TrEMBL record:
Keyword annotations from UniProtKB, A to Z: DNA-binding, Transcription, Transcription regulation
Family annotation (PANTHER family): HTH-TYPE TRANSCRIPTIONAL REGULATOR GALS, LACI-RELATED TRANSCRIPTIONAL REPRESSOR
Record keyword Transcription regulation present: yes
Record's protein name: LacI family transcriptional regulator
Keyword Cell membrane in record: no
PROSITE patterns hit by this protein: HTH_LACI_2
Coiled coil: none
Length: 340
């Protein structure tokens, strides 16, 4: 038999007060005495009362919910960002609705429709790889829902953003490879329509230029940067008449794919070819050799995204000015890139 749901009327009857008084006490209304508030909260706990969040949202105009859209929650970088967002949101009394687009534009659109129907107070999102049109995000703005982009951001969209300095991360990584004596550095790049991969490519090129090294188009391979893309990229590079002696990868997953192929073909890393990744996924330290990578301060990024959305939720819409926060990357050097 289904257990009866406890209502405001049940608490009111037990305390011999009105349902309106119960509602005000539970919402910490300033005109209710502390004695009444304590009595109502005690009785609500005794009866195991669960408030109707949807009804409360309709009454107050706030759901206390923040929607988060990530491409994939099983990627450690995104799960760490989510952790940071949740920590910040929970401290402020907000809960997080986590969704995954799986890099599907259709799913991204469906998620936004669902979040709008759920009446979330704000949305924090990282764009999917295939997203090239942004009308569904415009819909959020038109509905007056605060929006913050992180990592995979959209510039000049009139919303706040937080990202790592991808240009600097790439520049520093390639500069390290040059310092290790590498002369022919390839780049497993991401799709150039995305801001972060565009900036990583710029950083790669700038480091080569500053070292008076040539930029060879055939050494720049664009892909989705999954593990299989890293394998395919490495196979293509190894077929070249003059093989590269280093590879800078725009993701750790593609770096792992490149490392797998090197080991299968008995190519010694880092003696014959060095490999550098991006994101500092946990598995990079467990491999042999460990993969050098660029750390993106993922938890700090999550905290910052949470702070930005809360600022917008609590602030005046007419006075809102978008903020762009850029975090400093750091190199995590491991055996895959250290020749000496």
């Amino acid at each position: 038999m289904e257990k009866k749901k406890i209502t405001l009327q049940d608490i009111a009857k037990a305390l011999n007060i009105t349902p309106s008084a119960v509602s005000k006490a539970l919402s910490n209304h300033p005109r209710m005495s502390q004695q009444t508030k304590d009595a109502v909260n005690k009785k609500a706990n005794e009866l195991n009362y669960k408030p109707n969040q949807i009804a409360a949202a309709l009454r107050s105009g706030q759901s206390k919910l923040i929607g988060v859209i990530v491409p994939a929650a099983n990627i450690s970088f995104f799960s760490s960002v989510i952790r940071g967002i949740e920590e910040t949101a929970n401290k402020a009394g907000y809960s997080v609705i986590l969704t995954q687009s799986n890099d599907s534009v259709k799913k991204e659109k469906d998620i936004i429709n669902t979040l709008l129907a759920t009446r979330v107070d704000g949305v924090i999102a990282a764009l999917g790889l295939k997203t090239k049109k942004y009308d569904h995000f415009e819909k959020l703005k038109e509905e007056g829902v605060p929006l913050v982009f992180f990592d995979r951001i959209l510039k000049n969209f009139g919303v706040s953003t937080v990202e790592v300095d991808d240009y600097k991360g790439a520049y520093d990584a390639v500069h390290h490879l040059i310092d290790q004596g590498c002369k022919k550095i390839a780049h497993l790049a991401g799709h150039s329509h995305m801001e972060l991969y565009k900036n990583r490519l710029k950083g790669y090129k700038a480091a080569l230029k500053d070292a008076s090294m040539p930029i060879c188009k055939e050494l720049i391979l664009e892909s989705d940067l999954h593990l299989e893309d890293g394998r395919n990229g490495m196979l293509r590079l190894l077929k070249m008449k003059e093989r590269p002696d280093a590879i800078f990868c725009s993701s750790d997953y593609s770096a792992v794919g490149a490392l797998q192929v090197a080991r299968e073909q008995n190519i010694i890393v880092p003696d014959e070819i060095t490999i550098f990744g991006f994101s500092n996924e946990p598995f990079t330290s467990y491999l042999d050799p460990g993969i050098s990578s660029v750390d993106q301060s993922s938890i700090v990024m999550g905290h910052t995204a949470g702070e930005l959305i809360l600022e917008q939720i609590k602030g005046s819409k007419s006075e809102f000015i978008p903020r762009s926060i850029v975090l400093n990357p750091s190199l995590i050097l491991r055996k895959s890139s250290k020749k000496f």
